[in-house]
Design brief:
The complex is a heterodimer of chains A (about 300) and B (about 325). Chain A has two domains: about 1-120, Elongation Factor Tu (Ef-tu), domain 3 (Beta Barrel); about 125-260, 3-Layer(aba) Sandwich (Rossmann fold). Helices cover about 25% and strands about 30% of the residues of chain A. Chain A has eight helices and 15 strands. Chain A has helices spanning about 1-10, 55-60, 100-105, 145-155, 180-185, 215-220, 235-245, 290-295; strands at about 30-40, 45-50, 65-70, 75-80, 90-95, 115-120, 135-140, 165-170, 190-195, 210, 225-230, 255-260, 275, 280, 285-290. Chain A has a seven-stranded mixed beta sheet, sandwiched between helices. In chain A, helix 4 links the parallel strand 7 and strand 8. The two termini of chain A are about 30 Å apart. In chain B, the strands form two sheets. In chain B, strands 3-2-6-7-8-9-1-10 form an eight-stranded mixed beta sheet. In chain B, strand 2 and strand 3 (about 35-40) form a beta hairpin. Classes of the chains: A alpha/beta (about 300), B alpha+beta (about 325). The interface between A and B is large, with 47 and 51 residues.
Chain lengths: ~300, ~325
């Protein structure tokens, strides 16, 4: 209950049970209109989606960290996080890279076209428990979208948190997503933003760091005192970032990350996203470092 | 619970009445050299002397391919048509053995442990289960090792035990009683037949409690590699299993129209967990075999309080490389 009260204070609706769709059929998606398409980087797009059914739009709510199944009718479904913040009402956003059949099909959609969405599924970042703490966000590449949701959630309720720092790295300058928002974060006095690109990925006018996320993090040397770290990135980045955080004094229970296993149903039935006895779709996608340590190495 | 006697002729008459009242009757029938479930038009097609059908009876509630919804696209707009759950047929599944009926318990648990899968539930609500207790078994059967038995009534609405000159009928549920009413005259007074006298004796092959305890700490064990070395990853074990519920969601697209389908899948396939990036959390057959056994005998008991195995032995009968699950469990 405490949980819900905090969320209400954070300006997020607590409308009852956002999870169960009106139809008893768990697999029937909501129809969504692609309202806005943003080309973020080569092969990476953000869609702003609006519910076509007004009642569904009104009843829908979600929390930071949750994901959905996005449909390209004729090609299938893909799993992405909801990349917009629950504090921004009236739409949801997703950011994806063209990689397989479904994402390529989605990428062909234009503004005004219809696609499908099922969700929200999964657990959430416990943002209500982070009140009064410093937040350190560390993201790599296409893993900024799941974090963007919680970053904006925190910034839209900025008074609840102390220092907010963001470290974001990508392969090259071109691969950085949300460029306009990075600029916005950079200009805010209440956010410390550090961006970095892999060696060789810089342009002549690049003013950020050059180097891999773990080494830039070490150089940043953030305090672990009263701080939670939220880390999202490719497995190799996570693997080398966790030890740096531990060296900086972060306890595993104060480190949060998300797992992204292959999914079909999103609701704990199709049998493929489990890591040991935990289902990424139900027990995740958000896990603490401590929870990961207790899991078998199967992700 | 009510006990009755029914002769073979009486049984066939009753089943034919059920067919006449538009119920879909599924029962073991001869299919080439195999005995398998099929929809029957007349009770005399039904086979009674088989040990085990090739497939389990799970498809009555969890079809191999099921339509989730249909869609039609027109100029960027989409119309959806939901699956019509009310159109699912009234079904009687007859002649399955107790291990198959027991399989509906773990299936129901998977489809309802949190989110309720109304497609499965709607089919199950419309299904009556009439089991045939086992008077014979083969070397692959091991129901008694997983808390089942040749006369186990879990999951049955009616259970018939072949006795002298007919069947002992146990009417176990209201659904069963309602079905009997279709031709009550076919059922005679209980003759006092002792069920146990007719059931096959099947000694336990391993102690399930010990196996499950050992599995709790067996994730890194070398047994997975040793046991799965000959596995070719064909997935036959999952397709014949009465409790395997893993599925894929696929598109059946024809131009601007199409259907989204749910299809049986198997954790034994390499593609099952493959990420788009090429990363695969379960890269080797040993990891996939471990997933299969741990899911059934560790994760499901821990999370759903049910085991994903009823001892029907089908996976071992179907395996082209002769992997025997009972032997593998015993060796743990």
């Amino acid at each position: 209950m405490d949980n819900l009260q905090h969320i209400e204070e954070n300006g997020i609706s607590t409308s009852p049970n956002p999870h169960i769709p009106k139809s008893p059929n768990l697999y029937l998606p909501y129809l969504m209109t692609v309202e806005k398409v943003t080309q973020e980087a080569p092969g990476v797009k953000t869609f702003r989606l609006k519910f076509q059914d007004e009642e569904a739009a009104e009843q829908f709510s979600f929390r930071a960290g949750q994901f959905g199944e996005y449909s390209a009718f004729g090609d299938g479904e893909s799993t992405f996080c909801i990349a917009s913040s629950p504090t921004r009402k009236g739409y949801i956003e997703c950011t994806f890279r063209e990689a397989g059949k479904v994402t390529s099909s989605l990428a062909r959609l234009e503004e005004g076209d219809t696609m499908g969405f099922r969700g929200p599924f999964g657990n959430t970042f416990p943002i209500d428990q982070w009140k009064g703490k410093n937040l350190l966000f560390i993201a790599g590449g296409i893993a900024l979208p799941p974090m963007r949701c919680v970053i904006w959630n925190a910034l839209d309720t900025r008074e609840n948190f102390k220092d907010v720092s963001i470290l974001y790295g990508a392969k090259s300058v071109a691969d950085l997503v949300y460029k306009h928002e990075l600029k916005e974060w950079e200009d805010r006095p209440d956010v410390k933003l550090v961006t970095t690109v892999d060696p060789g990925g810089e342009t002549p006018d690049w003013k950020g760091e050059v180097g891999f996320v773990p080494s830039v993090l070490e150089k940043m040397n953030p305090s672990s005192e009263n701080t939670v770290a939220i880390v999202c990135g490719p497995p190799v980045m996570i693997k080398f970032t966790f030890p740096v955080l531990e060296k900086l004094g972060f306890k595993p229970e104060n480190i949060y990350t998300t797992l992204e296993n292959r999914m079909k149903c999103g609701v704990g039935k199709c049998g493929r996203c489990n890591v040991g006895k935990l289902y990424v779709c139900k027990d995740g996608p958000v896990f603490t470092g401590a929870e990961l340590q207790a899991l078998p190495p199967e992700y | 619970m009510k006990k009755c006697f029914i002769s073979l002729a009486g049984l066939q008459r009753w089943l034919n009445v059920l067919i006449d009242t538009q119920k879909h009757l599924y029962a073991p029938v001869n299919k080439g050299a195999k005995v398998d479930f099929g929809r029957v038009a007349s009770a005399d097609e039904i086979v009674f002397d088989h040990i085990q059908t090739t497939q389990s009876a799970k498809s009555v509630a969890f079809p191999r391919t099921d339509v989730l919804f249909s869609y039609e696209k027109e100029k960027g707009k989409v119309q959806l048509e939901n699956a019509d759950l009310t159109a699912y047929p009234e079904t009687v599944v007859f002649g399955l053995h107790p291990c198959d009926a027991a399989g509906f318990n773990p299936l129901g648990a998977i489809f309802n442990w949190d989110y309720k899968d109304e497609l499965y539930n709607a089919r199950m609500e419309r299904t009556v289960v009439i089991t045939l207790a086992c008077t014979k078994a083969d070397e692959y059967c091991f129901c008694t090792s997983v808390n089942g038995g040749p006369g186990n009534t879990v999951g049955s609405d009616i259970q018939l035990t072949p006795v002298k000159d007919g069947f002992l009928a146990e009417i176990l549920t209201e659904k069963g009683e309602a079905l009997v009413k279709a031709d009550e005259a076919a059922f005679e007074a209980d003759r006092g037949d002792v069920k146990e006298k007719y059931l096959v004796k099947l000694p336990e092959k391993f102690d399930i409690k010990t196996v499950q305890e050992k599995l709790q700490t067996a994730f890194e064990s070398p047994i997975w590699k040793a046991q799965s070395q000959r596995c070719i990853g064909c997935g036959a074990c999952a397709y014949v299993c009465p409790t395997c519920a893993c599925f894929d969601i696929q598109e059946d697209a024809h131009g601007t129209k199409g259907k989204r389908l749910r299809c049986w899948d198997s954790c034994g396939f390499a593609l099952f967990t493959l990420h788009t990036s090429g990363h695969n959390p379960r890269q080797t057959q040993a990891q996939r075999w471990r997933q299969r056994l741990l899911h059934k005998f560790s994760y499901m008991p821990d999370r759903l309080s049910v085991r994903g195995c009823t001892g029907c032995g089908r996976c071992s009968r179907a395996c082209p490389v002769d992997m025997n699950i009972a032997e593998h469990l015993r060796s743990i």
